[in-house]
Amino acid sequence: MRKLRDRRRGRFFVAGEAARPGEGVARRIPSSAHGALPALDRFAARIAGLTGWRRNALAFAAGGVSALAQAPFGYGAALLISLPLLVFLLDGAAMRPTGRRLRTAALVGWWWGFGAFLAGLWWIGAAFLVDAADYGWMIPFAVAGLPAGLAVFPAAAAVLAIAFWRPGASRVVALAAALTATEWLRGRIATGFPWNDIGYALTNSEALMQGASLIGVSGLALVAALAGAAPAAPFGPFGRRRSGTALCAAAAALIGALAAFGFARLSGADDADVAGVRLHLVQPAIDQSEKWRPENRWQSFDVLLSLTREAKPAPEDGTTVVVWPETSTPFLLADSAIALGDIARSLPERSVLVAGTVFATATEAGVDPQGDSAETAASERYYNSALAIDRTGTIIGRDDKVHLVPFGEYLPFQSVLESTGLGALAESLPGGFTPGSGHVPMTLPGVPPASVLICYEAIFPAEVVAPGTHPGWLLNLTNDAWFGDTPGPYQHFQQARTRAVEQGLPLVRAANTGISAIVDPYGRIRASLALSKRGVVDGALPAAIGKPLYARIGDGPVLGVVAVVFLLLAARRRGRQHKATD
Prior knowledge:
This is Apolipoprotein N-acyltransferase. By secondary structure, this protein is an alpha/beta fold.
């Protein structure tokens, strides 16, 4: 197919096979008309007419622009550029011959997704710089490989949307529904990785963030995709002024309604705290390249103890909860009597410590006179854990990380892949980490039960609260030091904040290098410590509020809306086909 210009008639059109019955055709765009609207039509037509590397390059760039809608930039309006470009490129795919429509749509979607994920996730390469001598060579494969794999989901969305592509607003609705569906699947297929879901573009505003209490981040994704792509509806070869303008108005009204709900919810927000509970979050800001050196282990531990001693005793009949971040101790804390004794002497009266640390099943572990853990047998299992320790140095509670990071905390098909050298990506401990058996709220003296989330467990909306449990707060221990001062830690924090809104629970977050914070059930930051700063965060524990709608019903209604959209589009298409053949 070639894009042609008829100079006599002054019109752009597409040469190719006739439309199938009931599909509709791309309209002709006059090139001689003046004014803003015809100019936008001609612009859209030129984009739709791109082929080959030019089309792929623009799709890649458009996807990259969408990353500006994520933290730390927070330019949600970037979707008003990125998604209309995607629509116009898919217009071009829809004008291809039947045998090439799906292939072209898949390529457009993949390149758009590759640009979005590369621009949004490039910072993962920083983790390989911690030990660059051994792992630096992996940076290009990690930085490009993960986005390339994740781009399959936008590609699938493009293929699904193009199957229902028709002139007017319906094509934008189809794309928004398809993106919502594939974003939801991205969080669940192959262990799931819902990082930078398109719905987070609406969480940069505290008012719009409140929508997560109703429809979750998947619902926000549907709204964001619809509102972002709506400006394309009236324009281009498949644009229709009437339906496109109506969709733009509806999208604006939807955003306005979401904002109004958010402002109303915040204006009536309950700022109550849990009586008698004080928080003392420790942010040691220990460089990742120094933390695990054997000669530095006690120096790192002393930093934790020093910051812990700054905690103040709780009032009578109260409790101070001291929190250390994920894997805070560079040794097996539970196996070191000396370390536990130091902790007991450092905690103030009426306090308890929750410390992130590696925990080993103690079948053969020993302790030497210096307090260091002895060599352990390869048959032992290791867990990325949170331990609760009281003022006597006794471990009174434990929670193990359930959702491990593939290729970081465990190696899928390890016995097969180790022979290729990929075993170096797994944790250096024998066999990597073992997942916990399931989350059970951690009970601390005088404190509401806590749902403990270790590292990126906080990015999975459906997993932050175990079924049948009723925690009073979310406790997130993490170590984002691997990624330095890059967008990664900011994105992680933003996603964790959204879980607080979805569940109506306060979020308490301790991170090695930040961002440590106390967040109320409305996602508002009560207190925080900036990235890379050493210090503490003190404050009260915000009280939980009643279960929001999303916490009670989950993603079912949003997925139902997506299903209904496609059923209606399919019925409309079938009806037009029957009418065309009569």
